[in-house]
């Protein structure tokens, strides 16, 4: 009678393994976008300005959040659309001069994806930009009483 002993090794059965390294590459096109929470209509409301008001009128500040590629390292700069040749954020509404300013808030760092967490894609860096608007005191305005509006475009460059 013959005794056959099986070993727990695949090598004993004539199998072997081979390895090969793979080089992975990707080209990232970094960008920023308006965050979903800031994507709707944004209204800067001065309220009622009484002609020859002895006090300046300031609109409530609005904050627009921009989401950007993580670790972009850039500081946002701002530009306003050209209105009457001015790109400084100044304009006239109902014959009343106004000024718009935009300032950077503190960046919130995003998080890289967590491996082992299904579907986790990480989060972007978030840059808040606060827009302030004011109208100087003592202005006469133009035309009859009533509401006026204009659309301005803020371009943020990273």
UniProtKB/TrEMBL annotation:
This is Spore coat protein U/FanG domain-containing protein. Pfam families: SCPU (PF05229). InterPro entries: Spore_coat_U/FanG. The lineage of its organism: Bacteria, Pseudomonadati, Pseudomonadota, Betaproteobacteria, Burkholderiales. Residues 19-129 form the Spore coat protein U/FanG domain. It comes from Ramlibacter pinisoli. It comes from the Bacteria.
